[in-house]
C-alpha cells in the first residue's frame, strides 16, 4: 500500500514514533469503534422518535396496536441505549489512548462541545428512565410528554458531538503562535462553517438508518404473514411508521447531500477531488461515476457553468493527498444507496396516496422484499458517508493544521489493542442481536407482574 | 479558576468511586455469592436502565481533557493498556447488565458481569496508584497494590450499602450476610491499606481520617447502625482517593486551559445542572411511586 510507504517516510524522523502497523491499527480501531457506535447512536436518536409517533397515534385513536408497538420499541431502545452508552464511553477513552497528541494540543478548543454533549446525553438518559418507568406511574398524556425531551436531547447530543468532527474539517476559534494554541474561543470552534451542513446531514442520516432498520424487521414479518396466509395489522403498522420516517427524510437528504458536496468543493478541495475522482485541474470537468463519464457535467452541476475550472488532485501537494480510491468508492456507494432509498420512498409515497383505490398497493411482495434490505443498506450508506468524510480529510486529523501521525500514541503495541477490540465487539454484536431477537419472541407485554395489561384509555 | 476545575474533577472522581465503585463491588459480590437471595438484592439495588454512574467517569474525562489537556494526554497514552482494558470491562459490564435482565436464561451474562466488575476497578485503581506515586507501570508492585486496594475498597463499599438495601427489600437474612461481608472486607481493607500507605510514604492527614472513619464504621456495623455507616464507610473510602490526589503533585497550573475555555465549561455545567438536578429528582421520586392499578 502506497499510503503505508508514504507514512513510513513521514513517521521515521520522529524518535519513538508509532510504527506504521500500529498507526494503521489505531486508525482502524477508531474507525471500527466509531462505525459501531454510529449505528447504535442513530437508533438511539430515531427509536424514541418513532416510539413517540406510535404513542401519539395510540392516544389519538385508543388503538391498542399502537400502544403495544410503542412499548416494545421503547424497551428495545432501552437495551440499545445501554450498548450505545458503553460504546460511546470507549470512544472517550480512545481519544486519549490512541490520539494523545490531538487531545494534548486541541482538547481545550473543542472540549466545551463534549461537555455539552455529556449534559445532553445525561438528560436523555434520565428522561429515558422516566419514560420507561413512567408507563404505569404517569397519566398517558404526561407520559407521552416525558418522551419529548428524550428525542430533543438525543438530537442535541448528536449535534454537539458532531461539532467536534466539523471542527476537525474546518478548525476555527483559536490561534497558533509559535506552535502554541492561544486565543481560544469555544463558541467559534463549535459553530465553525462546517457545523450546519454536517449536523443536518448526520441527523437526517441517523433518522433514515433507524427508520429503515426497524421497518425491515416488520417487512420480514409481513412477508412471513403472506406465506402463512395471515394478515397482521400489527406488522403493517410496525412497518408503516418507521418506513414513513425514513421515506420523508430520504428526499431531504438528497438536497442536504448536494449542499454538503458544494461545501466540500469550496472548502476541502483534496477531499472533493478524491470523492469525484478528479485527477487534473481543468475547465469543463466531466462527471465520472463508476464506469460512466459525462463530459462537462461536474462543472455544470457544481458551478452552473459547463466550462468552469475545477481543481483536481494534481493541484494538491503529494504529501497532502488522501487515499483517493477509498474515498471515491465509499462516496459512490453512499450515492447509489441514497438514490435507491429515494426510489423506494417515492414508491411508498405513491402507494400510500393510492391506498384507498387499491389497498394492496403498499404491500406488494417485491416492494417488501426490497424494503427488507433497506435497513442494512441505509446503515452501509451511513458508514460509507462517514468513511468519505474521514478518509477524505487525511492525512490531516485537524484539516491543514495537524497531521494524523502527529496525534498518535507513540507507545508500541497499539495493534494488539485493535485485535482485542475486534473480538469483543464481534461478541457484543452477536449478543445484542440475540437479545433483541429474544425480546421479539417474548409474548406481548412480557413485563414485571406489577404492570397492568395495556395502556388504560385516557 | 484552575482550582475550581481541579475541585470539580476531584468531586467527579469521588462520586465515581462512591457510586460507581459500589456498583463494581456489587458485581464482585454477585460473582462470589452463591445465594440467589443475595443476587436478587444486588440486581434490585443497581441502576434501572443503564449504568448511570459511569456518567461521573465521562465527566471526569471530559473535564480533564478540556481543562488540563496535557495531563489527559500523558496519562491516557502512557497507561493505554490498563485503561483500554478498563474501557472493555465497562463495555462488558454495561451490556451484560441489561442483557441478563432481557435474557435471564443465558448463564454467561452474569458471569461476565462479575468478572468485568473486578477487572475494571482493578485497572483503574492500578493506574491511579501509579499516577499518584509517579511510578511507571501498572504491572509494578505499586500498580498491583493500587489495583487490589481499589477493588477491595469497592467490595467493602458495596457490602456496606447492600445491608440497608436488603433490609428495605425485607430480606433480613441477606441483610445480615452483607453485614458479615462488610465487617470482613472492612477489616481486611484496613489492614491492607495502612501498611501500604506507610510503604508508599503517604504522609497525608487524610490517611488518619480514613483509618478513623474505617474504625468508626466497624463499630457502627457491630451496633447495626446501617444508615450512619453508609456515611462513615463512604468517608473511609473517599479519603484514600483524596490522600492519593494530594500525593500526586501533578503540575496542573502549567497544564491548564485558557480562562475562556474554563469559563465556557463552567457556564455549560451550571446551565446543565439547572436541568439535570430537577429531572434526576423527579426520576427518583417516580421510582418510589407504586404503579397505578388499571
Q: How many DSSP H or I helices of chain A?
A: 14
Largest sheet of chain B: none
User: What is the CATH domain class of chain B?
Assistant: Mainly Alpha
Question: What number is the mean pLDDT of chain A?
Answer: 87
Keywords (chain B): Cell membrane, Membrane, Transmembrane, Transmembrane helix
Subcellular location (chain B): Cell membrane
InterPro entries (chain B): Cyt-d_oxidase_su2
Family (chain B): Belongs to the cytochrome ubiquinol oxidase subunit 2 family.
Protein topology:
The complex is a heterodimer of chains A (458) and B (294).
Chain A: H1 2-11, H2 20-61, H3 64-97, H4 100-133, H5 140-169, E1 175-177, E2 180-182, H6 186-190, H7 195-228, H8 233-267, H9 269-276, E3 282-283, E4 287-289, E5 292-294, H10 297-303, E6 309-310, H11 324-353, H12 365-393, E7 396-398, E8 402-403, H13 404-407, H14 414-441
Antiparallel strand pairs in A: 1-2, 3-6, 4-5, 7-8
Helix pairs in contact in A: 2-3, 2-5, 2-7, 2-12, 2-14, 3-4, 3-14, 4-5, 5-7, 7-8, 7-12, 8-9, 8-11, 9-11, 9-12, 11-12
Chain B: H1 2-32, H2 36-45, H3 54-67, H4 69-78, H5 80-102, H6 108-133, H7 141-168, H8 172-199, H9 205-222, H10 228-248, H11 259-288
Helix pairs in contact in B: 1-2, 1-3, 1-6, 1-7, 1-10, 3-4, 5-6, 6-7, 6-10, 7-8, 7-10, 8-9, 9-10
Protein name (chain B): Cytochrome d ubiquinol oxidase subunit II
Membrane topology (chain B): Multi-pass membrane protein
Main location (chain B): membrane
What does this structure look like?
The complex is a heterodimer of chains A (458) and B (294). Chain A is mainly alpha-helical. Helices cover 72% and strands 5% of the residues of chain A. Chain A has helices at residues 2-11, 20-61, 64-97, 100-133, 140-169, 186-190, 195-228, 233-267, 269-276, 297-303, 324-353, 365-393, 404-407, 414-441, and strands at 175-177, 180-182, 282-283, 287-289, 292-294, 309-310, 396-398, 402-403. In chain A, the strands form 4 sheets. A two-stranded antiparallel sheet of chain A has the order 1-2. Chain A is globular, with a radius of gyration of 24 Å. By secondary structure, chain B is an all-alpha fold. Chain B has a single domain (2-261), classed as Formate dehydrogenase/DMSO reductase fold (Up-down Bundle). Helices cover 81% and strands 0% of the residues of chain B. Chain B contains 11 helices and no strands. In chain B, helix 3 crosses helix 4 and helix 7 runs antiparallel to helix 8 (172-199). Chain B is globular, with a radius of gyration of 19 Å. Chains A and B meet through helix 3, helix 4 and helix 14 of A and helix 3, helix 4, helix 5 and helix 11 of B. Chain B: It is found in: Cell membrane. Chain B: It comes from Actinomadura litoris. Chain B: Its main location: membrane.
